[in-house]
Amino acid sequence: MERGRDILALVAPGLVWAVHFVLIYALISAACAQRALIGMGTVWIAGLILTVLGVVLALWPLRLSNAESVRRALLWSSGIFAAAIVADGAFVLLFQTCGG
Amino acid sequence: MTDRADSTLGVFGAQSSLLPAGEGAAAALGLTNAMTLGGAAIFVIVMAFVWLAWRRQTGGRTWWILGGGVVFPLVVLALLFVASTGVLRAVAGGREDAALTIEVTGHQFWWDVVYDPGGLAIRDANEVVMPVGVPVRIVLKSEDVIHSFWVPKVAGKMDMIPGRVNETVMTATEAGRFRGQCAEFCGLSHPLMAFEMVAVPPDHFRAFLEDLQGDAADVAGPAARGREVFLEAGCAACHAVRGVAEGARLGPDLTRVGGRAALGAGMWPMNEGSLAGWIADVQDMKPGANMPSYAHLSGPDLRALAQWLGSLR
Amino acid sequence: MAVTDPETRTPYGGARKGEPGKTFDEIWQQPRGLRYWSAVSHQAVGKRFIVTGFCFFLIAGVLALLVRTQLIVPGNTFLDSETYNQVFTMHGTLMMFLFAIPILGGFAVYLIPMMLGARDLIFPRLGAFGYWCYLFGGIILMSSFLFDAAPDGGWFMYTPLSSNEYSPGAGPDFWLIGITFAEIASVATAVELIAAILCARAPGMSLTKMPIFAWYILIFAFMIAVGFPPLIIGSILLEAQRLLGLPFYDAALGGDPLLWQHLFWLFGHPEVYIIFLPAAGMVATMLPTFVGKPLFGYGFVVAAVISMGFISFGLWAHHMFATGLPILSLTLFSAASTMVAVPTGVQIFSFIATLAEARPRLTVPMHFILGFLFIFVLGGLTGVMLASVPFNLQAHDSYFVVAHLHYVLIGGMVFPLFGAFYYWAPLFTGRMMSEVLGRWVFWLMFTGFNLTFLLMHLTGMRGMPRRIATYPEGIGWDRLNLLSTLGSYILAAGVLLFVVDFIRHRRVGPHAGRNPWGAATLEWLYPLPNPNFNFHAIPAVRSREPLWDQPELTDRRAERIDGVLRGTADSRRETISCDPITGEPIQIARLPHPTWTPFFAALGLAVAFGALLASFYWISLAGLCFSVLVFLLWAWEPSDAGVLRPDGMGRTLPVDLADRRSHTHVVVVGLLLVLFALHASLIFGGLYLWNVVPDFAELTVRPLGLPLILAAGAALAMAVAGTVARRWALSERIGASGAMSGLTALLAAGTTAALGWAILPVSPFDTALGAVIWATVTFVAVLSAAAVLWGLFNLARDLTGATRPGQARHAFNLATYAKGLAAMALATAGLLLAFALTGGA
Question: What stretches pass through the bilayer (chain A) (predicted)?
Fold first, then answer.
């Protein structure tokens, strides 16, 4: 963890999670609020793509760092964030409408 | 239904989510029980871990952190999430099936109730009567600040927000009277903003609606003087009594006031004495209410008014 | 210009601020008498935060007792409704805003430099300024009691109850203005802590060798920097609605009361974790001391703290489950809410694993740690329950939530804090607190707490809502409330006994000596109490537990320990500043001596805010101008930069470097983070209203397209001009750099003018969206005004010869600020342009 790249590796999954969360929130808001900009189909497809992309990007920093001191912690923090991304994204597939 | 029933005031458990009498509350109680037991078990296990760690210096193990901190929570949470989403969809779904709609509008500090707003549109206040076993769509609005509609024995709460219309479906599974209360802090008399939900068999409910549609009955004797006082004192500027004074909506509709079990939005037992006390001294009983105290009414007038109101059922 | 021999170069003006003829000890001496209040060193400021915070804790505690006393029997008339509402509102407000965050910030301010091997925080005046803002904000809020106008709308100030129509009194104004002021303090302290942790550590202390407490505080500070802005914006908008009639939250004009709730909980939920993190950091620091082994799973804890810092921002709407949001949204927040249990679990199990490392000593702080584990785990589990939507709809706004939040906050914060008082008291006073009384304090608090709050879970499930001054008899709440009230008295007795013990120990507590607990971190290096400068020489650090692993730190008298910066070269206070990642020294940071500037800057703001409350707008403006003037004086002081000095360990280091890694640049980046968060909150507000109230979005008049394009161009040019000014400053073309700084100022003004022109047709009074558009542009305008001042300030310095060769920090940092400002101006112009292009009236 001595180098900047390792720090980046620790923070990056969190940033990926944050962006993913904001986008999923935006998708749901666009579909379910008064304006109803997009349909549930779009939410499904975009949500799926975002979630797959998010998981890949959250795990990506594992390739960045070789420092032994960081790797174990990094493995788990990327893992936690990847799980969080799945949790925040996958449930959309359970829904056919905004209300159920 | 025109008989005045005993109110839920002082009835143990009248507002308890642990004694459900509705579908939403029953489903939530199932979750509550499961989570309480599961949570208690996890708590005991974690505390046992602490105790063991304290007693035996085995050294830390990485798998504790990964097992206890990551894997175990993820598994439990995934289960919990699926279960509670399932319950949520069961509880919140079915709005389309609801045959009956009741619109409740929150005011500081009372509830305006309209049965079947699209059709009959019969107005009442501070008591929500509904048929047992039938899903009822409750439409929630607010005229001033945010309130929250909550009958713990029947279902979870839903906020009433100015500028928005919220909807929820409630199904009572037992006949009875259940206490509800405003659950969102709404100002000075927030603690005094309660109501009663009355679940009755469907045929009783039909009778109740028919009854409610009619005008207030004519009366004779001292109560008739009460009606004059009502009109003279300007009560009709805010309160409607169908057949006597219509249209005003600033205060609760009083067509059936004497038939309600409680006075002042579910707060005091309904009788002529408390009605008289209320009219003379609203601001003391319910600070911040929009109705002024009518302390200037003469004793006989006040009694007549209370008697007349008490007779409206 | 040729660089002269660095060794012989006289410090530029530094000697003016320095105190020649004084010894090292004298230079670092805390001023006495009235002048004590001009002290800016972290020991003084930290203590002030802690003492003031504790006073607010006691006041808020008394308010809590009033609440409990009112609820002891049904239908009680001890307090009337109005007083009761004021009491519970102020209880929550004081505890959350004026106790929890500031006192934890105070501990951080006090401990971080000592733990990390710095003589002071790297921006002592910013810390002092933060303290005065906090104090004045608190006084403004408390003064509402004197005017019989204490806020009574709840600590969450939901609108429309807090609007003019339903709260015509000044209560909400006191709340909004006082709290916003105090929040400025928290944000200032946070930015300062970020810079201090990243830039001022002992040589060799890389991020991985940092004590765990510093990690917790680093994340705490970042969370404040991002988490407080939504509420600051929300409060300013609400105050503007009350004062000017702008309809941000007014449903009749296309506003939405839920927008306030979103902004409030965007702050409010992270706030809980902001409060938890430093306290958990205290546990993670104390625990290894009493176990005698390092924290088990340091890397996991760091990862957990980082992930908590992110994930806790995704939960805000779980306070809004009952507001009628679409079920799909509820489920998203439900999912995100449950995920936060993972990093919490990692930390708890890491603490448990540490316990198993060796036989722990059962001291008073250890009691509080065990109490923390017991209470907090329970609170965490009820938190998971609340993440389940159907359960939440029953429990929300009932006493179940009251129980849950007190388990989390008292268990997660107050118990560790009291442990921390027992643990670190010797640092403050040089004496130990009582082990006997401490046990009594603990058991009283523990029993009282559980009696009070465990029962409330049941009270809530039996349907008792929160925030009710009275309740009817006989429906199942009477006995539970009676017992809760009795419990609260026991809890209060514990706190009272603590106060007694604290006062007692200052006179009769045994002297602590050196490292009384056998701890591993640097704050225990010296015999207590610590000297004001913390270190005669700052030792190199090779271990996370330096006092355990580095014998050269403990085998000799503290003042003989080898290290950098022994003595002082120019009669100035200074400390070593490092590379943020590796901890290698890169510069010597000159630190300010005692000064009144922070006090007067805060005083000017206090006058501005106070006069705003009293509607004396001219006085308000005068206060603001006074404050700006003091800031300019503060910034104008002669720079010490440009000289090289030996560090005493064989290196020659520059003083006050102009570099990306330098502390001033880090603080500008930190400030930009705050500003981005503020700006993003406004953008969120605009997009939210556009999306949720489309009818009124259509009614809103569109801004003009052409000026928006001009604004975007001017913003880009401003960034370029700033960057050129930086480059020329670095190559010592002082005059040319000054000219570019002036141009930057001009372009900043141009950006604002173009944006203002663009929105001229939009009315801020007709629709809420129009009001948000005006608010956003005003925000950019205020930041541009700062850029104008800054550019002209640099130009003036360059022209008057105040800038000497080798000095480039002022231009260096302006360039970064200009880029950040340009980004915000571009985003604003872009979104407005998109809005203009979507047609409309």
Answer: 7-31, 37-62, 74-95
- Which tens digit of pLDDT belongs to each residue from B91-148? 776 666 788 999 999 999 999 999 998 888 999 999 999 999 999 999 999 999 999 9
Residue type, C676: F
**Are B214 and B48 within 8 A, CB to CB?**
no
Q: Which of B61, B64, B74 to mutate to test the interface with A (most CBs of A within 10 A)?
A: B74
Spell out, as residue ranges, where chain C has pLDDT lower than 50.
1-16, 841
CA distance C188 to chain A (A): 23
DSSP letter at C464? P
Give the residue extent of every domain in chain A.
4-94
CA atoms within 13 A on the CB side of C719: 14
Per-residue 3-state assignment (H helix, E strand, C coil) for C262-304: HHHHHHHHHHHHHHHHHHHHHHHHHHHHHHCCCCCCHHHHHHH
Tell me the count of A-C CB pairs closer than 8 A.
119
Residue C838 DSSP class: T
Q: Which residues of A touch C307 (CB under 8 A)?
A: 13-14, 77, 80-81, 84
Asked if residue B83 lies in contact with residue B94, where contact means CB atoms within 8 angstroms, the answer is no
Query: Cβ distance C391 to B35 under 8 Å?
Result: yes
CB C41 within 8 A of CB C120: yes
Looking at the domain B222-311, which fold is it? Answer: Immunoglobulin-like (2.60.40)
Classify domain B100-212 by CATH number: 2.60.40.420
Q: Is residue C762 part of a domain?
A: yes
Min Cα distance B177 → chain C (Å) is 13
Amino acid at B174: E
Partner residues linked to B170 by β-bridges = B136
Which 8-state DSSP code applies to residue C531?
Answer: P
**Average pLDDT for residues B155-165, to the nearest whole number?**
95
How is chain B split into domains, by residue range? 23-92, 100-212, 222-311
Which residues span the domain enclosing C791? 671-837
The CATH code of the domain that includes C784 is 1.20.120.80
- Please report where in the chains the tokens 């104390």 appear, as a residue: C286
Q: Which residues on C lie below 8 Å from B87 (Cβ)?
A: 388, 390
Domain count, chain C: 1
Q: What pLDDT shows up at residue A2?
A: 47
| CB-based contact, A3 to chain C, within 8 Å | yes
pLDDT digits (tens, 9 = 90+) for C581-597: 888 999 999 899 899 99
Contact present, C404 and C386 (Cβ < 8 Å): yes
Structure tokens at C732: 């010592």
| CA dist., res. C104 & res. C46, Å (int) | 10
